[in-house]
Predict the 3D structure of the following.
Amino acid sequence: MGSEQQTVEEILDLAATQFKVPRESLSADDDFFHKLKIDSMQALSLLTRLEQHFHIELPDYELQGISDFRTLAQRIQARL
Amino acid sequence: MTRFSGQAISWEVTDGIIELALHREPCNEFGSQSLAEFEKLVNVLPELEQRARALVIYSPLQCGFSAGADLRETYYRTQQMDRASAVESVRESLKRTHEVMNTLDSSPLTTIAAVHGVTFGGGLELALTCDFIIADKTARFSFPELRLGLIPGFGGIPRLKRDLGNAVVRDLVLTGRSFNATKAHAIGLAAQVVGEGQALTVARSTARQLAKFDHPTSAAAKQFIKPIPYEELRREIDLFCNLFCQPAVERGLKKFVESKDAQPYLP
């Protein structure tokens, strides 16, 4: 299991690739809905990518109220 | 009518395969227009069944297969009615929808849902009428109805119970969470998982293979394997209508339609 920081980096890499934004424009405390300009439907597609990448299941309700990459990484870390 | 092009759906028969496309923007919300066009399909299905061996249902829309029932339409339509009329209107709509779903479920054709992206609520219920679900790896499956104070109303629970273990049914229905394609395959919901953008191609190739089999034998095997849970389906309509009377539903639908998010699918 990698560190939380490593998980954050991997999430940022995936998000940048999936939504075609410059990787350097993203940081851990960004609001991903705002920064990636995505709606809840696109957030679901990010969730699918994250589940595939980390080989975990992340129920949607775990994401309720979360909008920053760091907290997302913590939720993922808890399931690794 | 071997070809139809509507506002919500289109179909075409090619080489013994009916391809049914769902294309109502933004994400194939199933409303009155969709229902009317599906009824057209059901009316001509006996004729199509003479010309075809398989039916493939897919969506060319980027968002996915279908986000389910058109809740905005339901909300605004029933808001103009008193409670008893609203419930009666919902019951009538559900009966018509069940007629469509039951006809597809029991068709002698071999039926395949080629799904990707959002496959939620009524969209999942439509997929469950098919003999197989071929899922692109972007597919997500969910029954989010409980967050509105409802249950799936297009036959979802009886068909899930027919096809999967009860623990899985409880997980899907009672949590409202979504499953990805890998999980759907692991629990037996999806027959195959394929790469992104490949579901329709694989469904066509599967349909071509199945179409080689002796049709009466395939139809007889299907009828033997796949019972239609008519009694439970009827009870589902009653339960849905009973729940629809509850204040939680109006609150849930109001919250949904007033959401600032264009597609408020996260529970």
Q: What stands out?
A: Chain B touches chain A through 25 residues (CB under 8 Å).
